[in-house]
Amino acid sequence: MYQKGWVAANDGNISVRLDAERIVCTPTGVSKGMMKPEDMLIVDLEGRKQEGERACTTEIQMHCTVYQLRPDVNAVVHAHPPVSTGFAVAGRALNLAILPEAVVTLGTVPLADYGLPGTPELSGQLRPYIPNHDALLMANHGAVCYGETLEKAFFRLETVEHISRISLVAEMLGGPRLLPRREVDRLMAARSRYGIQFPEGNEPEAPIAAEDMIAMKNEERFELTRQELVALLDEVLRVRGVLSD
Q1: N or C terminus of the chain: which is more exposed, having fewer CB within 10 Å?
Q2: How many other C-beta atoms are found inside a 10 Å radius of the C-beta of residue 27?
Q3: Is residue 67 a contact partner of residue 147, using CB atoms and an 8 Å limit?
Q4: Is 5 left (phi over 0), alpha (psi -120 to 50) or beta?
Q5: Could you tell me the residue ranges of all domains in the chain?
């Protein structure tokens, strides 16, 4: 993460579930590009330190919340990749069907409301999204991804930043052309073939397809007859004192 420029200084944190009761995690106040094995800590599922010399990451509760809600998850990574964090700062979720690989890998990446880092408030904002998503954006903060292995969690974070960069370029070129609903449904149905599984009862969220976007834009439109438009303009001018009764 440090080499890719997804974290600066001492940013970011990583954890891995060791067993049913223990988690190994990164310390606070140490650059992720300069850590040593002896810097790691072991905590319980409530975030209480069991072993280690350094202080635990201040965002351990966020990690514990993921493990508590997702028994299938064994690793969590959090960072501030510049482009995806830019989307989070702009209040934009990554919820458009733009790439088959992104639909299969992540479905959609929602944007959780802002919560103060290192506090229960942050975990509370993420809690509604964790059961049905493998990657989240955090408003004005960054991204968090998780998976069955540390490698999968890392790859999902890499995919989030990759999608963000492509989305940004598409926006600069006039806006993305979304995949149709039929293709999105086929891709979501194919996720199990690629080994992407959710716990029973959790339903992954599909991204917005082309038809969905058209419907959303149509809902925002309204029409006026010529007579209604003239009446509306007359009323505006009267309010401004330009016309008199």
Answers
A1: C
A2: 17
A3: no
A4: left
A5: 13-208, 213-245
Predicted pLDDT of residue 123: 94
Q: What is the mean pLDDT of the chain?
A: 92
Contacts with 232 (C-beta within 8 Å, 6 or more apart), sequence order:
224
Structure pTM? 0.85
Transcribe 192-214 into DSSP letters. GGGT----TT--PPPPB-HHHHH
Q: Which of 25, 19, 50, 49 is nearest to 39 (CA)?
A: 25
| Amino acid sitting at position 244 | S
Token pair for 213: 């976007």
Q: Which helix (H) or strand (E) holds 144?
A: strand 142-147
Nearest-angstrom CA–CA distance, 59 and 13: 8
Residue 29 has pLDDT above 80, yes or no: yes
Asked whether residue 14 carries a pLDDT value surpassing 90, the answer given is: yes
94: which strand partners?
109
Q: Span 13-208: which CATH code?
A: 3.40.225.10
Q: Quote the pLDDT of residue 163.
A: 96
DSSP string, 34-103: S--GGG-EEEETT--EEE-SSPBPTTHHHHHHHHHH-TT--EEEEE--HHHHHHHHTT--B-B---HHHH
Contact between residue 135 and residue 163 where contact means Cβ atoms under 8 Å apart: no
Residue 197 structure tokens: 């599984």
Q: Tokens 């029973």 label which residue?
A: 200
pLDDT of residue 238 exceeding 80: no
Residue 224 is encoded by which pair of tokens?
């006026």
